[in-house]
Write a structure and sequence with these properties.
With about 270 residues, the protein is α/β, with parallel strands linked by helices. It has nine helices and ten strands.
């Protein structure tokens, strides 16, 4: 099983509009077998589906409502049930194409959450999407910034047993609660400059996946990240765990296939 899976990236971002063919080709040349394209809001759902059809067997779509919604480039707010209502008919339309519901979750960063009501709105949006994922028999691709513990506790409370927590910023002890619940954690290239390095040390390899979160969370701040940088995550993990990059590649890809079984069409076993 020679190749990587990028379990969480924003390939539909405007940053890639001008050179998407080149970005995809560079990703393949760097050993990527597949990437999961996550959504943030219903306005980009059709674009993600189009990209998955333009690059079949390589770009796999995940549709969902992110806990933070953009009002304008300068202003963001927490997600509301209205955002979810707008998304549901489109998710329903494309349900057979999806490999996961995402990007969903909680984000309690103070600038997005001004009152308990904002937190509760986000919780309700996540609950709605967790129920949808169960009904469609799909895993969740989860964001949990400044909300690691509340996110994992809510997922467990809801009986979610298939989830990827991307770029987890909570304590390793909280992450290990997620490991016990069967959740996986994806590590972006920014790990080389991150305060979350302890997380990689403590997570078992059987619970780790790779991601780029492109165009964000690259090895350098303020520089566009690309899926081709997936190997930076793998190399870092191999050093910390004292195993070969090939072992990291094989195990993280096996983990991704276990969580996202629909990827098996792309990855020759």
């Amino acid at each position: 099983m020679h190749g990587y899976v990028d379990c969480h990236c924003h390939i539909s971002a405007a940053d890639f509009d001008q050179d998407i063919e080149e970005v995809v080709e560079n990703a393949k040349q760097s050993g990527l077998l597949a990437l999961l394209a996550v959504a943030e809001h219903s306005g980009e759902f059709e674009k993600i589906i189009d990209l998955s059809q333009r690059f079949p067997g390589f770009i796999f779509p995940c549709l969902g409502v992110h806990p933070v919604q953009e009002v304008s480039p300068e202003q963001q707010r927490g997600a509301s049930l209205q955002d979810l209502d707008a998304a549901l008919p489109i998710i329903e339309k494309y349900k057979d194409h999806l490999v996961a519901i995402g990007e969903v979750g909680l984000d309690f960063t103070p600038r997005y959450v001004r009152a308990d009501a904002d937190k509760e709105n986000q919780r309700q949006v996540l609950i709605g999407q967790a129920e949808l994922a169960k009904r469609l028999d799909l895993p969740l691709n989860v964001h949990s910034r400044s909300a690691g513990r509340p996110t994992i506790h809510l997922l467990k409370e809801l009986g979610v047993n298939r989830a990827l927590l991307h770029a987890f910023d909570g304590k390793p002890s909280v992450a290990l609660e997620g490991v016990k619940a069967g959740y996986l954690f994806s590590i972006p290239p920014s790990i080389i400059r991150s305060e979350q390095q302890k997380l990689v040390k403590q997570l078992p390899l059987e619970s780790i996946c790779l991601e780029t979160d492109s165009p964000a969370l690259g090895p350098e701040k303020q520089v566009r990240n690309e899926p081709k940088n997936i190997s930076i995550s793998a190399e870092y993990i191999s050093k910390v765990k004292g195993v070969s990059v090939e072992t990291v590649m094989e195990l993280t890809t096996q983990n991704a296939l276990r969580l996202f079984p629909k990827l098996k069409t792309a990855v020759a076993l």
